[in-house]
Design goal:
The chain has 202 residues and is of the alpha/beta class. 34% of the residues lie in helices and 21% in strands. The protein has one domain: Rossmann fold (3-Layer(aba) Sandwich). Helix 2 crosses helix 4. This is DUF4136 domain-containing protein.
Length: 202
């Protein structure tokens, strides 16, 4: 637990989270990417110190919804899947203004699967840690201004944005999602998406 807390403190000092406003804009290019399976689990999620509680269902539903919202905009020809586990969270409670304004946080492990290759793109899960959007309530903290549900929604949206940045980086540096000029979406693909089967490996 101490390692988890120290990591969270470091992220608080070094990171700023993106807002969700860019969903009204065209998505950043991701080659031939199309998300099919969006699998989120949270049975091992650790509740951080002084956090409001959240159920497993609340955690998984919020993260899954945010991922679908952001990545459902991509309609590439090749099929990819997410395997995501919620590792930890803090939903800040009210603190002391100007002295202690706790920040909400969310930690995810993310694995991306290539449907055509039948395997993972990243052998080791990518750990994503996000905080509530800076500027939302810089003095009094969201413990005063948001419900736990609202905090979790914002964190999940920030996490989806962080995952998008990770995919863009991997696409540029490692060649993920390079378009195949011969690849096109077929009626079979479309029918499969209507009633998909979860890959056993996920």
């Amino acid at each position: 637990m101490m390692r988890w807390v120290l990591g969270l403190v470091m992220m608080a000092a070094l990171s700023a989270c993106a807002s969700n406003r860019d969903l009204d804009e065209a998505p950043v290019p991701l080659g031939d990417f199309r998300l099919v399976h969006n699998i989120v689990v949270a049975e091992n999620a650790q509740r951080g110190p002084l956090s409001r509680p959240a159920t497993e269902a609340e955690l998984t539903d919020a993260v899954k919804s945010a991922m679908a919202e952001r990545f459902g905009r991509y309609d590439g020809a090749s099929r990819y899947h997410f395997g995501i586990s919620v590792e930890g969270y803090v939903l800040a409670q009210p603190g002391i203004p100007l002295v202690l304004a706790p920040k909400s946080a969310l930690i995810l492990n993310v694995t991306v699967w290539d449907d055509a290759a039948g395997g993972k793109l990243n052998d080791e899960p990518e750990q994503v840690t996000v905080l509530e959007t800076f500027g939302t309530a810089p003095i009094i903290g969201t413990g005063y201004t948001m419900t736990a549900e609202e905090q979790l929604k914002e964190l999940s949206q920030n996490a989806a944005k962080a995952v998008e940045r990770f995919l863009v980086r991997q696409s540029r540096e490692e060649g993920w999602f390079t378009p195949d000029p011969t690849a096109v979406a077929t009626p079979t693909d479309i029918d499969a998406d209507a009633n998909p089967e979860v890959p056993a490996a996920l």
